Every structure is written in structure tokens, then in C-alpha cells.
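Input record (Table S2, row 921):
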Amino acid sequence: MRIIFINLIIACLLCSCNNQTTVEVNNLRCELIHHPVGIDHLAPRLSWELASQERSVLQKSYHILVASSLEKLNADEGDLWDSKRISSDASVFVSYQGKPLQSRTECYWKVRVTTNKGESRWSQPARWSMGLLTPEEWQAEWIGLDKTYEWEDPTADHTRMGARYFRKEFETPQHPVKATLYLCGLGLYKLHINGEVIGDQELSPTPTDYRKEVKYNTFDVTKNLQQGSNAVGVVLGNGRFFHMRKSIPYLHMGKVIPFQYPKMIFRLELEYADGSRQAITSDNNWKVTADGPIRANNEYDGEEYDARKETPGWDKPGFDDGKWLAAEQVSPPEGKLSAQLNLNIKVMDVLRPSGIKELKKGTFILDMGQNLVGWVRMKVKGEKGDQVQLRFAEFLNEDGTINQENLRGAQATDKYILKGEGEEIWEPCFTSHGFRFVEITGYPGIPATGDFEGRVVYDEMEQTGSFETSNSLVNQIYKNAYWSIRGNYRGIPTDCPQRAERMGWTGDRAIGSYGESFIFNNNNLYAKWVNDIRITQRESGSVSDIAPSYWSSYTDNMTWPGTYLTVSNMLYEQYGNKEPIVKYYDSMKKWLYYMRDKYMTPDHMMPKDEYGDWCTPPENPAFNDPQNPSLITDKTLIGTSYYFYMLRLLEKFAYILDKPEDAKEFEEQSVVVKEAYNARFLSKEAGYYSNNTVTANLLSLSFGLVPEEYKKAVFENIANRTLGEFKGHVSSGIIGCQWLMRGLTDNGRPDIAYQMLLKTGYPSFGYMIGKGATTIWEHWNGDGMAKWIDSQNHVMQLGDLVIWFYEDLAGIKNTPGSYGFKKITMKPQVIDGLDSAKGSYHSVHGKIKSSWKKMGSSFHWEITVPCNTTATVYIPASGKNKVTENGKSASSTKGVKFIKMDGVYAVFEVGSGNYNFLTNE
Ligand code: BGC
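Output record (beta-D-glucopyranose complex):
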């Protein structure tokens, strides 16, 4: 205590300020979620941010208290954990190290820190709670209804099944002081208590491989219960538990993994003021019916709702359920029941339609003005039995009718039958659509735009980034990217949200996940997904191309399963989340050695590659794929270069885990592969790889495969071929594009990257936009052949573009070797023709801002660097004396340190704070 006191005084003297208010601690997060409830992580990781008006604030120590009640915490009693003062600058993912956490424990916590500028007060309290840590504690049965009704056909290829409605009444002697509800309802559930829907989650729980894992959600429902009679209702939809299709007609290598009829497990725990407890659990005393209003539900095909079948009061006490059946006790799902740590899906945005027109009598086309993912909420008034049909599509035919051909059999059709009782408002529960247009038929009267609203549905996550430039095309591309990214989160990152697919194709996100992490805090989702990838691993070591493995596709290649490593690396670098590397290292190594042992040739080539440089733009937009061999990148080159890259990633992971011997082993292998690769693919005289595709040269450069003396020539070949033959357009598929914008920039030609971005002819993003795209297409020629079969909402063509926007245009980058933006590199590329750019990114350490503008020959730049971080700032200037900060010479400003000149930049080191730089050339 004394020591702390002395230190405090020293801190205070040093900065001569009131140390109690200099630094605040806020934004407390457990597992990077703001209010996690019912988690089952035994050493949850705590994070916080510092805020201060002072510059150059660095944390010196932290002190965490975790208490089992708010009263104890307020009395500064950390009965669960009192970390005492720990000398450390860590403020992200600090593991709980207190008493072992038990099921149901409420954990209230706070933190205070000392810094070089003084000590903070205690933060405001934050909270997390523990769920049920063992299956035995549920003391509940899995219940369901393993039979069908005459209107249901579970055996058809497009399964038609209605929702299952479960209910249970119970008495409470008093109003409980605490009521906690645990529920796993598969495939999807809606929860009701006493006539109200509980929570705003949609399409929950999160999708998993139900053979291996099933997830439960936890709710505090204290306020929803009443003394006396209560009723709980659970509606189960099919989701992905009762498969949407029996077979995949167009995919030769995959097969659908069948699951089962919907089922649920439920436990409600009540605590009373006198200390007594009561539990309401699922068993065969519950009642069930499938004869409710949701007559059919299928994620691909849509939902059918007959409001005449509504039974008002079914979720309230006193309802006559005499005609309902007894719920069946059914076998539990194979997967282990555990708490869901990623947040659920929600309605995240609401969009008003931009127009509606009558195509022919009774057929209306609603235009949302934007390709979005979710559904439509409708207002309607009519006669009992009137039937409104909504069909969803991404584009229209020339005659104005909707086109659903590219949905590959997904019917994407919702039906609503009116009960005829005045204004009726409806939206579906257990489906979602990717669409811009809706064909409306059967609507009584004339529908107006005001009768509809687009519900934009995806995983709840904080939006962490913003980005804007002086160029409107660049801004539109960013906007399209934003809509595609958020449209493709569905508890997993999907390939596309509209057709009968919507799978977690790994390769699509290998690097895109990193770009996305600037816009959204997607840590929890991707941490969940790398676990999904791990779960696909077979005994042999083989990893699937799709996670969860709803379609069984084990083609053994480097680029798709390699996402296991690239996403784990992203989580570490962008968020400081080391857990996937710690937990899955052995499994990743097993995968790579499986590939090596099974497929590596004696001359150290990795010939296994399934997809090539997928979706390389064909020379003619009328073609499906490129025909000219000079456009096609060699598959063995792709396989081997990626094998090398994976070795380097594992080497890095081995160092992180303090396994120097492993690291050495990977390094030695990579040396051998590099030599063999160059012997096989490098044309020394011409200075290019294989057949000189941009992708072949780019992968070689980006992975560090090119011997020093050839780097210049190899890059010149990229530049020459791009500017010459391709006239500045993209020529790579999704593999090459993952390295393209950064590759051009890091090798000194950001201008080529920028020019490529400004193209409006085929192939380019501008071309898509010119054709009306409001999202990113699956194919560069998505208006040609591909239009009839392919998606208009895929993220994979983005490659590394979003990374480039944030890191190279806004100039916000985690310094290599650091994690979670503890060290920041701020280096905007100053490109002819681009007058300004501004971006902000809320990192785990706090918000980073950058806003620059060219003013004649001067450069004006305002930046914000969060507390407990430092930034290396690259200011375009011909000398340090040309730079001012807030009107004064930058190099003599306190907290701004000149480091060196580097090309066109004067490089400074700064601590946290706001800075206003201006150059005077
Ligand atoms: C998906 C892609 C995926 C690919 C792999 C497609 O059907 O939409 O995004 O990566 O298959 O072959």
C-alpha cells in the first residue's frame, strides 16, 4: 500500500496534475463483448480502454477487482479476484486468475490503472455471468415432435416443415428476485414468456456442426415473470438442424450432412427472496403442436404464415392446450452442449424502400434501392384468407419482372394469409433473403412503400470503422463492400446470402476477414468460426473447405483450409486474441503435415490445389472462365507458394508459443521449399514466375519467395503486364487479389492500385457499379453468363481492398510484430488525383483517427492516437523542418519525436493524443 502511495505522489509530481482525473478507464469488456451473459469460459479475458486529455499516456500497472455482487465491488472487495497491483502495460485480453468460476456465478468487475501521467479512479463496474458449466446441471430433457403433419414433407428435396410450438405453465409462489433461463432450441428458436417475445435475437442460436457442438443462450428474465401463474412458449424453426436440402444437385464433391427434427432443452431457475429456489425444465409434461401459423419454414425457400391459425394467448397462462400433444422426450443431439460466446443475429438496420410500381394488375415490384440481407416487414389490411406472396430477387429482367434464376433453386418466397382483423403487421422468423427487389402479389388493395420496411439482419457487432475519400467512386466501392460484408454474416461468414448455398466457404475469407475487421468488431464471430474450422478436421488431419461442414467437401488444398491459419493470425494481430493460436496450434500443424506427407512430391512441390486462382476474370465477359492459358495461374505454383506461406505462419505461431525448436523446423523446411520453388518456377532471365501471371509473381513477392536480386524484375513484370496487356485492370482471381493492392503499394506503385480502382470498364468494381451493383458481385462479369447462375453479393472479390483503404489510404495500421494496435503505423499513401482521405478505427486499445487533405503543395493531417499505444507517423514532407504540429515546429513539440527521413516521408514517433500536422513545402 505504502509503495503505491509513494508511486502515486511521484506520478503526480512528474506531471503536476490532478492524478485522479487525468486518466479514465472505460469500455470494459469481457471476451470483447460488452454484456456477456451465461458464458462458460473458465478464464474469461478482460479488456479496457484508457482515456485522457493528456498526451503520451502509457499504462504502468493495473488492478482488477472481481466480486460476486455489486455491493461487494462497490465496497472494493474482490471476493472472486483481487489481482492487486500488477506492473504491466497490458489492457487487452487479460485473463481472469481468481477463484475457480462456478456455474451461475455473477461476476462484477472494475479496474484502475497507474500510468506515466497519473493514476485513474476505479472504472465504472461491468459484469459478466457464468452459464451452466456441465451438462448434468441442466436436469432437463430434450423434447421435440419427431413426426410430421399432412401438409409437411420432410422427405422432399426442398423440405417443407412447419414450426413446432411448445408451451408450459407454472406457478411461482412469489415474484422471484432472480430468474435465469437457459435455452438451446434447434435449429432456430423464438422464446416467449407471458405473452411477450424475449430478447431481440433472430435466427438463434448460432449455427454449428450439430454433431459436434450445440450452443445455448442465457437470459435474465426476472422482469418477465409474475407472482402466480406464468407461461413460457418456445417456437422452433428448422434452421440448419433440419437440413434445407437433401442433396446438392450442382456440386459433385459435396454431400449434405443430415441432422434431425427440431428439438430443444430448457431450464429456468428461479430464486426467491427467502433463499428458496425453483426450476422449470423441459420434459414430456410440456405441450406441443405443429398446427400453428408458421406452416412452412426453410432458410432457402422462405416462410409461410397463416394468421388464421394464430391462437392468441398460447404463450400466456390459462390457454386451453387440450388439443395440443404431449411433447416427446427425444434423443439429445450428438454435439456437446455449451454456451454461445459469439453474439446472436439481430435486426441491425431498417431500410425504407425506394419505390414501388405495378407491373401488371395485382403484381407489384418493390425496390429497396439496395441489395440487402434479411427480410421485409409488411403492413396489410384485408379479408380473412387473403394471401400475400412476396418473392425476393437481386435483379430484374428487362421486362421488369423479378429474376430468381441465380438463386439456384432457393424459392425465396414468403407467404402470408390474413386473419382479416384490421391492420396486420407481419415479418418472418425463420428465413432470410438476399434481395433488392420484391415481387408482391395477392396484396389486398394498392401497396405503398410505407407498407414495407427492409429489415437488415446480421450478427450483432460493433461497427468499428469509417472511411471516406475525396473520390466518389472510391466511396461507392467502399459502400458496396460494406453492404456485402454485413450481408454475409450469419453466425458464420457465408459465401453468399441469397441462393441455395450460404455456406462458410473458407477460402472466401482467408484475407477478407482482416479487411472486415476494420469495419466491424468481428473477433467473436471469427473466433467462433476458426473453432468451426477446427471441428471439421478429420482424424487424418484433413480440413474441410466449408465450415461448419454442412456440405462435406474435403478436397485437400492449401488455399481454402489455409484460412484456418490466416484467420487465427488476423485475430492475433488485429485484436491481440492469442487463444486460437494457443488452442489450435497442434491441429494446424497436423493439417500441414498431413498435406505434406500425403501430397508433397519428392522435389518439394505441393501440387494439390482445387480451385486455382478462383474466378480469374475471363478475357471476354461472355465467357465463364478464362480460355487463354496465359491468364491462368499454375495450380502447383499456387499450392507450393501457399505451402511455404503456411510454414512461415506456423513458424511465427511457434515463436509466439515459445516453441523455438518447432519454429526452427518450419523455417528449415521453408528454406528447402523456397529453393525448389525458385528452381521450378522462376525464369531468371525474364524475371518472372511460371507463365508470368500477375498472381504468380505477386504470390512469390508477397510471401517472400523471390531472391533479393530478382525482386525488382518480378515486380516490373507485374506492373508492365497490368499496365500494358490489361490496361490497368485487374487480371487476378480471388487468390491473387488477396495480395494485390498491398503488393502494388509495398513495391512502390500505389498509383497503379489507385488507377485500377478507378477503372469503370470490365473488369473492375466501377464496371459493376456502372451496371447498377450496390454490393460486390461473385464474378467480375456478373452481368454476362454469370448473371443467370451466380451471386450479386459475394465478398471474395474484395481481396485486400478494405485493408488497403484503412492501412494505405487512411493510414491506420497495426505495426507488424505488435498486436491489437499497441504500436500503430500511420502512413497514408499520397497518390496523384486523391485529394483527401479520412478514416477511423476503434481498435481494442481505443479509437484511432486519421483525416488528411492536400492543400496545394502542403499536407494537412489530423490524427488521434489512443492511450497506451504509440504511433510511428509518416508525414509527406521534404524535411523535418517542413512539418508543424498545431502551428509549432513538430520536431520541437513535446511528445513528438523526429525519427528519420524515409523516402518522401518525415517520420515521427508520437504517443497518445490528438495531433494537427501541417507541412509547408
Ligand atoms: C462459392 C464460393 C466458393 C466456391 C469454391 C462457390 O459455390 O460460392 O464462394 O469459395 O464455391 O468452389
